[in-house]
# Entry
Amino acid sequence: MDGDFAYGGQLTKNPIHPDWETIYGPSTPYTLRELVTVHTPRQVPRRPDRVAGLGRNVTMFDTARQWAYLQWWHHRHGAQDAWLQLIVQRCHAINTEFTVPLPFTEVQATAHSIGKWIWRNFTVEDFLARQAHRGSKGGKIMTEKKREANRQRATKFDTASIIQAAR
# Structure
């Protein structure tokens, strides 16, 4: 019914075909509480002080990077060493919010990666072009082409035919 755009065209195995050994589970469905184990993943926390494990590096990088782009505008005429020190201080502040902080060498490496990349690749022209591009969108979420494709997709099937097919 063209419902899944990622459908690769592969069919599933038929459980009643004689070539497959089908093992049926219990006749009553499980409850969610019965399925939860200590290994069930939870939603990724959004606050840096609640992140643990491998997510700390990514959280620190993303948080500091977004902050650094805005700060670059105010510090673009200064020295690169002062800029890098500012980024290190921000990454260190983010790191102190973690329950188990990262070693300072990782904080410093992440900060220098962010700071050097922005210092080397970010220019006033790039900044103004990005802002102009964002402003030109004017809050548009979808292009007209996408809207038309959605309209065609919606009119392709009516509710009655979907209900009838489901029965």
